[in-house]
Design goal:
There is one protein chain. By secondary structure, the chain is an alpha/beta fold. The protein has one domain: Rossmann fold. The protein has helices at about 20-30, 40-50, 65-80, 105-130, 150-170, 200-210, 215-225, and strands at about 10-15, 35-40, 60, 85-90, 135-140, 175-185, 235-240. It has a seven-stranded parallel sheet with strand order 3-2-1-4-5-6-7, with helices on both faces.
């Protein structure tokens, strides 16, 4: 068990699969008190049963709806009286060349990847300010550091997550709140399944099949950031598969 995580109240969005599920499983093994949110309630309930969580610890919600993100955080506070860690993890990645004008996909990425993070911050920050403690973890991507063809809008949203996280870091110092942005490379998840263009989807799935590392790697990064002493603020983690060049 990792020291420094036991009994911390942790809220995770996008917790029904992939990175969110991996973080939940790792933190549960370290003794955290979890409250999990996602759209797929059946998947959340299966995870909750596996981790022996209370039925109230899972909330069906959509990060594009501010009131539902607030409801997730309110549930954690109602259950435990506080929130120690907010993990804004929900995301999608429908890559496409800009010339194809996939406006609906652009809107979805902005709503989920960017506005969903902002809604998570808005939901958790007032309680953390009252406590004068807490940690907000936002999930960016390697794409937030380097843009590639077909990834322009996705990279823009993930770069924005990094910018917002840095602004937040500077603003919350009076309240003893820590901020972390985690930027994964190719990690096994359902992220590539959100790609709507068949040729791009095939290429990305092939890339992931060749290079992706297990989602447990993300859980380990989360555990590292959360487990640090109160006077240590891990602001950014960027990690890739060893074989991934870009």
């Amino acid at each position: 068990m990792t020291v420094g995580i036991e009994n911390k109240v942790v809220v995770i969005t996008g917790a029904s699969s992939g990175l969110g599920e991996a973080a939940a499983r790792r933190l549960a093994s370290d003794g955290a008190k979890l409250v999990l949110g996602a759209r797929r309630l059946d998947r959340l309930q299966a995870i909750a049963d596996d981790l022996e969580l209370d039925k109230e610890a899972v909330v069906q919600m959509d990060v594009t709806r501010c009131e539902e993100v607030q409801g997730l955080v309110d549930q954690a506070v109602a259950m435990h009286g506080r929130i120690d860690v907010m993990i804004n993890n929900a995301g999608l990645m429908p890559h496409s060349p800009l010339e194809r004008c996939k406006i609906a996909d652009w809107d979805r990425m902005i709503d989920v990847n960017l506005k969903g993070v902002l809604y998570g911050i808005a939901a958790a920050l007032p309680q953390m300010k009252t406590q004068k403690s807490g940690q907000i973890i936002n999930v960016s991507s390697v794409a937030g550091h380097k843009v590639r063809p077909t990834s322009a809008v996705y990279a823009a949203t993930k770069t924005a997550v990094r910018v917002i996280s840095e602004g937040l870091r500077q603003e919350v110092k009076p309240y003893n709140i820590r901020t972390t942005v985690i930027s994964p490379g190719a990690v096994a998840s359902e992220l590539a399944d959100s790609i709507t263009e068949s040729d791009i989807s095939e290429a990305i799935h092939n890339f992931y099949q060749e290079h992706a590392i297990p989602a447990d790697s993300f859980g380990n990064m989360v555990a590292f950031a959360v487990s640090q002493p109160k006077d240590v603020d891990v602001n950014e983690i960027l990690f890739r598969p060893t074989s991934q060049e870009i």
